[in-house]
Write a structure and sequence with these properties.
The chain is α/β, with parallel strands linked by helices. It has helices at residues 11-15, 35-49, 64-76, 94-101, 111-115, 126-129, 144-155, 172-179, 199-206, 227-240, 249-261, 282-291, and strands spanning 5-8, 19-23, 54-59, 79-85, 105-109, 134-136, 163-168, 186-191, 212-213, 270-274. Strand 8 (186-191), helix 9 (199-206) and strand 9 form a beta-alpha-beta unit. The structure holds pyridoxal-5'-phosphate. Pyridoxal-5'-phosphate binds at residues 34-36, 64-65, 140, 167-173, 248-249, 276-278.
């Protein structure tokens, strides 16, 4: 730390006379990568301070937050429990297999209860009854301690810049970055879910700071992709030797280049794009070996 800033130079940035820098949070840790590390940092400190020994959190079956929490537990000596949306699938997918190999135990919660985070149907599960040892982490790690961790993405940057960009799931990372900006700097989020406008309210609950959301780069919704997006990730890898994933960072980077081509950023702007990680996911490695 701090993670490196890698200049991204190509025909597009040169024609637009812009400086694009990629903040390589994907290189922070091979298993707890990117913004998941930022979001866990102060939460795990807090869990330790409170003397808690078991992290319990929520996620879908492909959640990067689940895999990151399981790895953090393994390295830092916490038990981990993942409350997973939907029915169990056997064999486990690669994300859940990884989490299990890290020692995480799973409790499955049907989609209706999961949506409301209503755990009444599983609250008597033996892993959930010893309240005194449990530290609860919300879905996606989205709380104020996560915001505090993400503020450090900005505070550790020692070069002047105008815009900072991130892909948004819960918007927690963007909220933290926005909270740490000076008045002339702008935080721009690229929601990866459809109808991403709903994130404004979620972000407002985490910070009063301003941010802008570019809601047209979801490619059909969460984890949806198109041949155009895959082609973009392919080209970016060949040009820059940086792997993006198609759930988060690929969509952000596609959006940034689209905005550059449309002349959205003033000439001379310095833009920082945050590589929030997510490339440890086996789906991306398949993409890398078979398509890149
Ligand atoms: C989880 C994740 C995000 C979304 O972060 P939020 O703080 O929930 O908006 C972005 N990029 C990657 C790679 C992620 O794993």
């Amino acid at each position: 730390m701090p993670s490196t800033l890698q200049p991204i130079v190509n025909e597009c940035t040169q024609r637009a006379k812009l400086h694009l820098l990629l903040k390589r949070d994907d290189l922070i840790h091979p298993e707890i990568s990117g913004n998941k590390w930022r979001k866990l940092k102060y939460n795990l400190e807090q869990a330790r301070t409170e003397g808690k020994s078991r992290l319990v959190t929520f996620g879908g079956a492909f959640s990067n937050h689940i895999t990151a929490t399981s790895a953090a537990g393994k390295y830092l000596g916490f038990e981990t429990v993942g409350i997973i949306r939907g029915e169990p699938h056997h064999p486990l997918n690669s994300s859940l297999q990884f989490a299990q190999d890290c020692g995480m135990q799973f409790i499955y919660l049907d989609r209706t209860h999961y949506r409301d985070k209503d755990i009444s149907s599983i609250s008597s599960h033996p892993l959930l009854t010893e309240n005194e040892c449990i530290y609860w982490l919300p879905e996606g790690g989205a709380n104020m301690l996560a915001v505090k961790g993400c503020e450090e993405i900005v505070s550790e940057i020692d070069t002047p810049f105008d815009f900072i960009c991130a892909a948004c799931g819960t918007g927690t990372t963007l909220a933290g970055m926005a909270a740490a900006l000076s008045p002339k700097q702008k935080a721009i989020g690229f929601p990866v879910l459809k109808n991403g406008e709903f994130l404004f309210d979620d972000i407002r609950r985490l910070t009063n700071a301003d941010c802008q959301l570019m809601t047209d780069y979801h490619f059909g919704g969460y984890a949806k992709t198109t041949p155009e997006l895959i082609q973009f990730i392919h080209t970016f890898y060949q040009e820059q030797q940086v792997l993006l994933d198609y759930v988060y960072t690929g969509k952000m980077m596609y959006g940034i280049f689209d905005l550059i081509q449309r002349g959205w950023f003033p000439e001379g702007s310095v833009i920082i794009a945050v590589h929030t990680g997510g490339v440890q996911n086996a789906n991306v490695f398949n993409l890398k070996s078979s398509e890149l």
